[in-house]
Write a structure and sequence with these properties.
The chain is of the alpha+beta class. The protein has two domains: 87 residues, no CATH class; 33 residues, no CATH class. It has four helices and six strands; from the N terminus they run βαβββββααα. Strand 3 and strand 4 form a beta hairpin.
C-alpha cells in the first residue's frame, strides 16, 4: 500500500512554526489549508484537505513522528502565542468603553445644529 510522506510537514513544523495554527482543535498549515486529524485513540493521523493529499493514508511510524512534532510545536511555539494573545486582551478596552468613546467623539465632531458655538456668541456680542 502507498502512504503519504508527511516528512515535509514535520520539517515545516520545526523550521516554520508560524505557518501553522490550531483551527477547531486541529493543526492547520495556513498556506496550504491542510489540516491534520489525530485519532484520539492513538491510531494513525490523517490529512484533511481539498486535494489528492487526503486520499493517501499516513503510515503508523510517520503518524507517531508527526504527533510528537505537533506536541513539541504546541509546547514550544503555540503556547507562547496563546499567552501573548491573552495578555494583550487584558489591555484591550471593553466593548462598552469603545462604543462610548466613539459616541463621544462623534458628538464632539457633530454638535447639535441649534447649539451656538462660543465663537458665534462672541461675534454677535461684539456686533451689538
Amino acid at each position: 500500500m502507498a502512504y503519504l510522506d508527511v516528512s515535509p510537514m514535520i520539517s515545516a513544523l520545526r523550521e516554520s512554526p508560524g505557518d501553522f495554527d490550531l483551527s477547531n482543535g486541529r493543526l492547520r498549515h495556513m498556506p496550504s489549508g491542510h489540516r491534520v486529524v489525530f485519532d484520539p485513540f492513538g491510531g494513525n493521523a490523517r490529512i484533511d484537505a481539498f486535494c489528492a493529499c487526503a486520499t493517501l493514508q499516513i503510515s503508523r511510524p510517520q503518524s507517531q513522528e508527526l504527533q510528537m512534532a505537533f506536541r513539541r510545536w504546541k509546547q514550544d511555539y503555540w503556547r507562547a502565542v496563546e499567552i501573548n494573545r491573552e495578555f494583550a486582551g487584558h489591555f484591550r478596552p471593553s466593548f462598552a468603553r469603545r462604543i462610548c468613546v466613539r459616541l463621544l467623539n462623534y458628538l464632539l465632531d457633530h454638535p447639535h445644529p441649534f447649539a451656538q458655538r462660543p465663537a458665534l456668541r462672541e461675534a454677535e456680542q461684539s456686533a451689538n
